[in-house]
Amino acid sequence: MSHAPVFFPPGARIAVLTCEPVGVLDYLAPEDGVRQGQLVLVPLGPRRVLGLVWAEGTGDFDLAKLRAVGRVLDAEPFSPGFLDFLTRAAEYTLTPLPLMLRMATRAPDIDQPPAARRIIVPGSGVIPRVTEARTRVMAVMAEHGGASFAASELAQLAGVGTSVVKGLVGTGTLAEIEAPRDLPYPALDPGRPGKALDGDQQAASDRLRGAVRGGAYGTTLLRGVTGSGKTEVYLEAVAECLAQGRQALVLLPEIALSAEFLDRVEARFGARPGEWHSGITRTERRRLWHMAGRGQVGLVVGARSALFLPFRDLGLIVVDEEHDGSYKQEDVVYYSARDMAVLRASIARAQVVLASATPSLESWANAASGKYARLDLRSRYGEAELPQMAAIDLRAEAMEPGRWISPTLAAAVTARLAKGEQSLIFLNRRGFAPVTVCRACGEQIGCHQCDARMVEHRFQNRLVCHQCGETRPIPLACPSCGVEGKLAPIGPGVERIAEEVAARFPDAKATVLSSDLFHSARALKETIAEISEGDTDIIIGTQIVAKGHNFPRLTLVGVVDADLGLQGADLRAAERSFQLMRQVAGRAGRISGAAPGVALLQTHQPDHAVIRAILSGQDEAFWDAEAAGRQAAGMPPYGRLAGIILSHPDLDVVSDFARHLAGLAAPLAEVGAELWGPAPAPIARVRGRHRMRMLIRAPRQAPLQAAISDWLAGVRLPTNLRLSVDIDPQSFL
Ligand code: ADP
Ligand code: ZN
User: Fold this and answer.
1) Which of 200, 381, 383 to mutate to test the pocket of ligand 1 (most atoms within 8 A of CB)?
2) Core vs surface per residue 433-445: b (16+ CB within 10 A) or e
3) Which domain of life does the UniProt lineage start with (predicted)?
4) What pTM was computed for the model?
């Protein structure tokens, strides 16, 4: 569908997509004319709003009364392919186009011209008088080599006052200079040699390089256990893409992965890539957005929203850990970055690499049907085997009351301590205890605003709602019956396991890794670095340890509750549990010359199909069985689902409206779709809003989006009622 951008001469009638709910409006092209895809400011009522020159104007609004475009922004025009992507992504996800435009322009001050600004650069580099604050500033400078900061941004990243930075400028350690804004990124050198690849790796690299050279669209599932060299292989595809003069994007599930990753890219290509995630400064965000459009950043490493950067010529998108739930955004715009990557690549004639040790069932099925290519890396690089896996049958263990580490697991930890090796104790539950109950009246302390229990966080000494984030001091007396001293924590969270570890292994150094215990991504990165240097004997962690980090001395993984996640009506409960357990177990490595790592899963159901599949290592058998079950039930990827989420502060308003809406659902039935619900959502209240859900299931080929649009067209929403459509939902809460 590629077409050259159209030029509109001064005074021509043009359609501009505004980022306001009104959407597309007609304007007159400005004095010097304007091209399709250019960003402009247009008058809207008394305001000026951001707009995108969309197409020739079509409205019948009187030409004489049309207002002219205010100003054309100094930014590269969006390519016709990118406009096409935004249109089709909007159609697929049933998102209004103005919201898509907002996603594609999420950079600060893009309406301001590039001007010089004062930034901090290295000076003599020597600190005359070393203080902790100064050292931290220099560490941030070193870590983000090549990035440009204002003094205040640098201070903020380092967690110090601006005066510390100014002080270092005063001593000549740093310098403050006038620099043009939005500098191009240093070029990466694709010609530098990578590591010598082994058989599977070489074959995979050859295939991917060939595909990228071909310059057509294609998606490849790259499968291999953690440590098999998937990153090494897809960096070869990146090298090929850069050699072709095109841009590459690597999506990663979370920031914590990127520190280690950026070093690797630098080692491979001699310079750092552009970074795009919530932890970067406003200056960098703006710079990267502009450079993506101008083709002056070769490789971008980013979180899911990097997919909406206006790349000039994207040749490759890698989605690492493609099964990861964080690729699905469920806020304002509901989209899956993995699926949208495939859409974008198909329009841009780019290649997609989906990398995972435990692919999603969707990707596995697409590879099985031949829609995607599949490449397997069969062994761990330089090693023959995965960790040994075994279940600990909790029914047969002599568990002490108030303790969650079984004697068998404790003995295994003791053995690692004796050898100076690390152990990881895994429990995917933050906080100290999931439930606080009053032993006098039985009351479970809940959130005032949500249908959720408050979780005790002992480090913070507060109760926290994991739905809305509300926190409260832990009360002395029961809020229901008023009796004091009877509130008791029930069940374990990681903090409670940490307490048990401290009691059982008083001489061991233990570290808890849980997202809520770190005030910044930087603090988390530092702790992870300390752990990989071996500064910890026992790691106690939630799922943030499951991903990507290499802990070379780690040889034992103990899963406190492998049953957590097996229950639950969620369609993907088994799949997710399988993936998570697999990923965690994969953390246990082998120290050269020693016995392989061991993963021990504490469970009450050692015969559960998922536990057996994890232990036996027969992934294909697990996926076959899951796929058969989904196919029989007409569930994704063999059928299609869409969720409708309605919320309102008043329960009657939302339930009446939901029933009314369900009564209008004839357009769904016409395409063979079924409607389930409305029913109160499993989380029936969040932040004071009552929530109802409906679920639509349709045959795979049904025109689901069109039917939903028909259904909702012309429906008037009661004031303050929110309605969201979630195509291909991952969460049903
Ligand atoms: P994955 O992405 O599958 O987890 P990685 O690419 O991160 O695997 O590889 C795991 C480790 O093994 C990394 O430290 C990597 O540098 C190293 N490695 C992988 N392949 C090779 C190779 N061919 N030569 C040298 N080191 C390798
Ligand atoms: Zn709450």
Assistant:
1) 381
2) bbbbbbebeebeb
3) Bacteria
4) 0.83
